[in-house]
Queue: 2 jobs
Job 1
Amino acid sequence: MKKTLWARLITCYLISVVLVFVFVNTYGMALLQKKLKKDQTNLLYKEASLISASYRGTLFDHEQSPDNLASQFRSINTYLNIRVWIVNRDGQIVADSSNIDNSPNVNLNDLDPGFLNKTISENTMFESLFNEPMLSIIRRVDYNFRLRGYIVLHSPMSEIQNKAYIYMDVINICFLIIFPLLFLIFIYIYYITAKPLKHLMKAAVEYGSGNYNYKINIKGPSEYRDLAAALSFMAQEISQLDDYQKKFVANISHDFRSPLTSIKGYAEAIMDGTIPPDMQNKYLNIILFETERLNKLTSSLLELNRFDNRSAMLDIVTFDINYIIKKTAESFEGTCKAKKITLNLIFSSPETYVEADMGKIQQVLYNLIDNAIKFSHNNSEIKVSTEEKGEKVFVSVKDYGIGIPKDAIKKIWDRFYKTDASRGKDKKGTGLGLSIAKEIIQAHNENINVISTEGVGSEFIFTLKKSSE
């Protein structure tokens, strides 16, 4: 049988009702009887003290007749249902509020020798005097430092029991009223919990089937609304990831297919003799060029994959960023000469030490300078500078080339993204250089930004932590 939330709530409700009813009518009843017995005992003590204080001097006066004495306590017997005995020091009952005209000729020492030595006696049962068990209080009366006798008060135990039943009946009636209200509360709890869950479950099924545009409308508690918002956000992220994967496959297929097609075509042409021997070196160089392009693309993908899997560990050391910039710039000497581009290095200090992964930062500089050279005009200048500001070092790579279109600035960090100008200008690029640069800088918990105007040039700026040494 399927255990639904409704079934569980009903089960909890029924169990709660039974447990509360049993608990109240067992343990609760015992506590109530104990409390009523304590209250009745206090009442008997109070009445005994009042009688002792009021009649102590005349209570055992021989001039007082037993009937007259008993009649004085009749009101206590009538209104409080408390039976009063006046017992002399020998244990003889001399007055009984229940038998005014016929006091019992009974000596309590004969019935129970230890009775008058007690202060309280529960379930007292003298068969010749009582029809039911009594709660008894024995008050010793002393006058002029002598024992004059005893005041004994009795209250039926059945009265305490009856009061307990009356109170318990009232409590049970209250529960009979409360339990239906509690049932309505359970229904309300089910409404505000189960119904939103059904909507969330349907949304999960829709998202699982690929319908990421499914809207969740929940008007329940804020926790469910927050969960619905989290699911919607997750669906959007998955949708974007799905789109990214499709674009990724399309881009990588395109970037791999082009060089592979060239390599395959030229290799087949050389093998079948279509390309004459004196032209083979030219096409072998093209094959090597395309092979290098594939190798660079593969290396870039592996680099990005390490960052995605959080497995790219950083080797943080202290080094002079100015020296690394100089060494990186030297590797572009041949390219710059071919395009007659001047690399202008501007440092705010002769030496600027930073704390970072030297190899990774050198890769960032290589990608940014390489990118600047690609989009710079012949006979132009590229500025690479460092500047210290507080605890940060700002590194800038600025060119005066074609710039980046305004609508493309936010996309340049995307993997495989190339502007139309880039696709026509650079056949060797992979569209991964800026993505790798951003991943490396973010892995250092630093920032990288770009300022660009189309037709004027671009400036890439990233920060590094300044060395404290």
Note: DSSP finds twelve helices and twelve strands in the chain.
Job 2
Amino acid sequence: MPADWQRGPYFGSPQTFMRVPATRDLAYADVAIIGLPMDIGTTHRPGARYGPRGIRDISCQLFPHGFDSLFLAPPFNQLRVVDYGDIETYPGYIEQSLKKSQEELVPIFKAGVFPVCLGGDHTITLSVLRAAAQQHGTLSLIHFDAHPDFWGGEADRRYHHGTVFRIATEEGLIDPAASAQIGIRGSISATIIGQARAAGFNVITADDFASLGPTATLERIRGLVRGPIYVSLDIDSVDPAFAPGTGTPEVAGFSSRDIVTLVRGLRGLPVVAFDLVEVAPVYDSAEITCLLAANLVYEFLLTLMPE
């Protein structure tokens, strides 16, 4: 269980996510919170390397209880959650950082421990996908984002946060026909949506979501995906009014209520890994982006509880 907030200041001591125990002994873990502090894949504003720290810092004010009438108990009653710390990355060396992250994630998957990864820019998802596919085979993807991240890159410069899911498709890590990209919008995305759809992705734009609403959107997602499933949540899927602290914000996105509802709706799906990326605290206002991100991680932990 996390340390009791009434015993000592919860803003003190080394910060782990919600003050869960810090350890790399996987024998004590069902779920591991893992930081991937890399942002050298950004094409606009950097700063997501500080995302894991920002999310952990604000998470100290979350209390381990279920919310509303959806859940009766905190996840820590049934799941052993640990903070694994950050995986080493190499500033300036993107391919080496991805290789290192993949190598360190493989034993976590092999141990049967569920990884909850905190980015970092979206490039880091590729290392988690590679490790996950090594253990589980080709994956379905549930991807919340303002952008499809399906650009082609250059022959000698393949990697940035906008090429992730094209590379993952080319490598056979994900099955686009059994995957959904939700919240896509903006002038940047308009140039590539057609290619993502042509590759087989089921794209639910922000306008589609506005018409469908959360319930119908979740029904559509559940009708598309099949296990094993990887969930990737880019915080820029949320409108910058609710999440300004990100590198490539796009207006007219999800509200905080929308994204919480969507994450809650994942309960019961055969998910094998989760990441939350692109939180850049340097652009945040009053830590509202970090606070939303920390709550979304906790909401996702609640979905892992046995029904």
Note: The mean pLDDT is 93.
